[in-house]
Design a protein that fits this description.
146 residues; two-stranded antiparallel ribbon; 5 helices; elongated
């Protein structure tokens, strides 16, 4: 049986004192990961647990610096998913509109839909979405800021 040595975690320090991980690939959200006991784990969680111990259930390791590639434990705090979302919204970092990967519309299309007549079902067929999406756009339940 061979024992593999864990890849060394390397980083550079930027002007905000973030330790930007350069040795490990990030997940889909840009957080670098490491394999521990055959399980992929975000390095931020790994470092938090090394310094402070186990992370309680339903808690997230959040970044004060808002830099996913940062692995500086001094930039982390624990919070719930709701705490993390509140922090994101307070700092106006949420993706919205065309920036959301799953978005079916451009801002131009949304403004056009709001002016168009016809049934919700007809417009849904025209734009190839469920009619409830059209309803939400017309009633400003989605794309509220436009």
């Amino acid at each position: 049986m061979s024992i593999r040595k864990r890849k060394k975690i390397e980083y550079i320090i930027n002007e905000n004192e973030c330790y930007i991980c350069i040795s490990h690939a990030g997940d889909k959200d840009g957080y670098p990961r490491i394999k521990i006991n055959k399980k992929m784990l975000r390095i931020s969680r790994y470092f938090w647990e090394k310094k402070y111990g186990p992370i309680p259930d339903k808690m997230c390791v959040c970044h004060k610096c808002d830099t996913p590639a940062c692995i500086n434990v001094d930039h982390f705090f624990l919070g719930t998913k709701a705490d993390n979302n509140h922090d994101r919204n307070k700092k106006n970092r949420q993706s919205k509109g065309e920036k959301v990967v799953q978005s079916k519309f451009t801002e131009e299309q949304v403004l056009k839909i709001r002016k168009e007549s016809g049934s919700l079902r007809e417009l849904g067929k025209k734009y190839r979405v469920h009619y409830t999406n059209i309803h939400k756009i017309k009633n400003k339940k989605s794309w509220k800021w436009l």
